[in-house]
Design brief:
heterodimer, A: 122 residues, alpha/beta, Rossmann fold, three-stranded parallel sheet, two-stranded antiparallel ribbon, 3 helices, 36% helix, B: 185 residues, seven-stranded mixed sheet, 42% helix, nucleotidyltransferase (chain B), EC 2.7.7.62 (chain B), adenosylcobinamide kinase activity (chain B), cobalamin biosynthesis (chain B), CobU/CobP (chain B)
Chain lengths: 122, 185
């Protein structure tokens, strides 16, 4: 992913590690690329579809404003195990699956990664 | 040559690895089996004994090494043989958690790098190296720092090993899905 988007070069980007940081809005964004990693962890802290829909919309609008802008979403697929018994766990999984569908619809490119090998789905 | 085989629990990945090894082993060569699991209870002891019995029935000559840690110590024993390492997940967990320091990401990364170096050395001192690992990434990333570091390092190792490997196979329900390198060697 870093290779494809050339993030290791001098390209200016901002990286949000969702396992260690909170998500942020585009106010004061100077960089042209933003990466949200660990999306499922971000969603876990606030499993609310309405919130994430408007979050995705805000970033989509930011991206549309200039040609060179790009938002990259990275998430773990947590939707394939046994349906959890605990209600909160189930809810988190549902919201995550729903968010991933929303993003897949919106995004220009979707890849599924396994051990660094990308399988392009869209 | 490295063959990387991964799969979920009870997916048939060990069977697949043995089949792979049988195809790679020459009739005169030895196959070294590196078992990284720590044998902790009776049930496991029995499983290990059963697997050893099964292997001894095969025409291939197996040599078993129980090596939960410091796999590099075995390097002098291999000479153009086939090496089967089962499995990476246990090895990494043993290296990370047998002593203090797993709270620090940098320390964990050093250990992961050491493992990768050993893998590269195993490759060059053997005829073929088959590595078995697990698919652990579908259950979400856990909150506790130890497991978080473990998964982060395992993912990092998977990427680098698959990059080095000539073949990468994902096993599901006993069926090999070739992700890299065409059909089985």
């Amino acid at each position: 992913m870093r290779g494809y988007y050339e993030l290791d070069k001098a390209t200016s980007h901002r990286w949000c590690n969702g396992y260690e940081q909170d998500a942020f809005f585009p106010d004061e964004m100077k960089e042209r690329i933003v990466v949200f990693e660990g999306l499922e962890a971000l969603i876990r802290r606030l499993p609310d579809r309405v919130y994430w829909e408007s979050f995705f919309q805000t970033w989509h609008e930011w991206e549309q404003e200039k040609d060179e802008r790009c938002v990259i979403w990275i998430g773990c697929d947590i939707t394939q195990g046994i349906v959890p018994i605990a209600k909160e766990e189930r809810h988190w999984r549902d919201v995550t699956g729903w968010c991933y569908q929303q993003l897949s619809r919106r995004c220009d490119r979707v890849d599924r990664l396994w051990c660094g090998l990308a399988e392009r789905m869209k | 040559m490295i063959v990387f085989i991964s799969g979920g629990v009870r997916s048939g990945k060990s069977k697949m690895a043995e089949r792979c090894v049988a195809a790679l082993a020459s009739c005169r060569g030895i196959v070294h089996y590196i078992a990284t699991a720590k044998v902790t209870d009776e049930e496991m002891k029995e499983r290990v004994a059963r697997h050893q019995r099964e292997r001894s029935m095969q025409p291939i000559r197996w040599v078993t090494w129980e090596q939960p840690l410091h796999v590099h110590e075995l390097l002098p024993h291999f000479q153009n043989d086939v090496v089967l390492l089962d499995c990476l997940t246990n090895w990494l967990a043993n290296e990370l958690f047998h002593e203090e320091g797993w709270e620090k990401e940098e320390r964990c990364r050093q250990k992961a790098k050491r493992i990768l170096t050993t893998i590269a050395q195993l490759e060059s001192s053997s005829n073929a190296l088959v590595i078995v690992s697990n698919e652990l990434f579908s259950g979400g990333v856990p909150q506790d720092i130890g497991t978080y570091h473990f998964m982060k390092m395992l993912g990092w190792l998977h990427q680098h090993i698959v990059h080095l490997a000539s073949h990468a196979i994902l096993v599901q329900h006993g069926i090999p899905i070739v992700k890299k390198g065409g059909s089985l060697p």
